[in-house]
Each structure stands twice: as C-alpha cells, then as structure tokens.
Amino acid sequence: MRIVEGYSYLNGHEHMLIHKPSLWSEIENVIAAVDAEQCRTKRTQGQHAKEDLFYSSTALNSAFQVELTERGWKEPLLYLITTGQSTSDQTMHQSAAKLYQETFDQETTSIARDNQTDFVKDRIAIEVQFGKYTFVAYDLFVKHMAFYVGDVIDVGVEILPMKSLQAHMSSGVGYYEGELYNLIRQGRGVPAVPLVMIGVAP
Predict the structure, then answer these.
(1) Structure confidence at residue 87 (pLDDT)
(2) Could you check whether the bond before residue 191 is cis, i.e. omega within 30 degrees of 0?
(3) Phi and psi dihedrals of 24, rounded to 5?
(4) What does the pLDDT read at residue 83?
(5) Which of 135, 153, 136, 159 shows the shortest CA–CA distance to 192?
(6) Cα–Cα distance list, 86 to 83, 113, 149, 152 (Å)
(7) DSSP designation for 32
(8) What is the DSSP string of 148-165?
(9) Which of 117, 121, 148, 161 makes an SS bond possible with 165, Cβ 3.0 to 4.6 Å?
(10) Which DSSP category does 116 fall into?
C-alpha cells in the first residue's frame, strides 16, 4: 500500500520527524509492506453486487497487525474500568494484572477491557481503522486523547483508507477525506492531542 495523503494536527507529524524519525520510517515501511490485493477477499451483495471481490476490513487490519507486531509495536495490556470515580482515578494508569490483586471498595464493580488502542511504541499510538466511520471519532476523541492526557503517548496516529479504497469496501467504512473534514471543523485544539492522520490506498 502507499500513503496518498497526510495531515498533521497540533504538530503531530513535526514532533515525530524531530523526536521519533525512526518510528515514522517504520510506519512508512509498514504501509508499504501491506499487500492490499491479498486482502481483496470479501464477497458482498447489494449496491456493489456487480463487482466480484472487495477489500476485507478484517484482512487489512490483520495484515497491518502482522507488520506492526514484527517491528515491536505492542498491543496494550488488559485494564479495568470501574463504577466509582475515585477508584477510576486511582486505577486508570495501572495494569489489570496489578489491579486484580487489589481490593476495591464496596461502591465499585470492576470490568476488564482490552480495546484502549491498537498499538503503542515509545510514546506513539497507532490506530489502524478500516471499520465503521463511528469508530474513527472514538479513536480521535477518546482513545488517543485519553492516552495523551494520561501522559502515556506524545502523538496519536490514525491510518485510514482513502475514498478511492473505501469505495471498494463494505458500506459504512470511514475514509480519510471525510474524517479530515470532521476533525478540522471542530476547530483548533479539539481534540487536545497531537495527531497524524494518514490516508492510504493500494
């Protein structure tokens, strides 16, 4: 695959070029290593029925996962969410392994979660988003921002299909051009986290 477009929000790209150039090179190499045609495996019906095969979101995500994992990008550890605000404040930045050994107060019920973000390495988080468009807003305004506010990352990276690729996928998939518009129309500073949005295509 190839990078077609990119957008630096709150100097996210500039931060990477100055402070993490090797990680930016890794991201470029990961994208180049993904063979999109190998992910063209989905049969669909309805409005796209005249075409035989479409790009599978699951296959694309898996291909990126293989490439990122091989380069040492880690999926986050299991963590816990709770019903009590005070306990949430205390446990927000601790791993579930530690929390399971602790006793919660009576007001709190703990729930295990593991979908905080896709990949993290050296204070950079990557979300590979070939799913529904609603997931992109959750990535940008919840996941990346929570990691940034919690001093876990310095930059969040969002990898999205260009419209030219999305047109050959199942309906409802978010795409770079639309999500760039959604980000820009929020105004400068919302969300309050440096980001790099990347639009990719075969």
Answers:
(1) 60
(2) yes
(3) -65, -40
(4) 66
(5) 153
(6) 9, 18, 17, 20
(7) H
(8) HHTTS-SEEEEEEE-HHH
(9) 161
(10) S
**Burial profile 20-50: b = 16 or more Cβ within 10 angstroms, e = fewer:** beebbebbeebbeebebeebbebebeeebee
Separation CA 161–CA 169 (nearest Å):
10
Helix axes 21-33, 57-70, angle to 10 degrees: 140
Confidence (pLDDT) at 102: 52
C-alpha–C-alpha distance, residues 20 and 182, integer Å: 27
- The radius of gyration of the chain's CA atoms, rounded to the nearest angstrom, is 18
The pTM score is: 0.82
Going from the first residue of the chain to its last (202 residues), give the mean pLDDT of each consecutive group of 10, the final group possibly shorter.
97 97 97 95 61 85 94 73 64 53 51 67 93 80 83 93 92 90 87 95 95
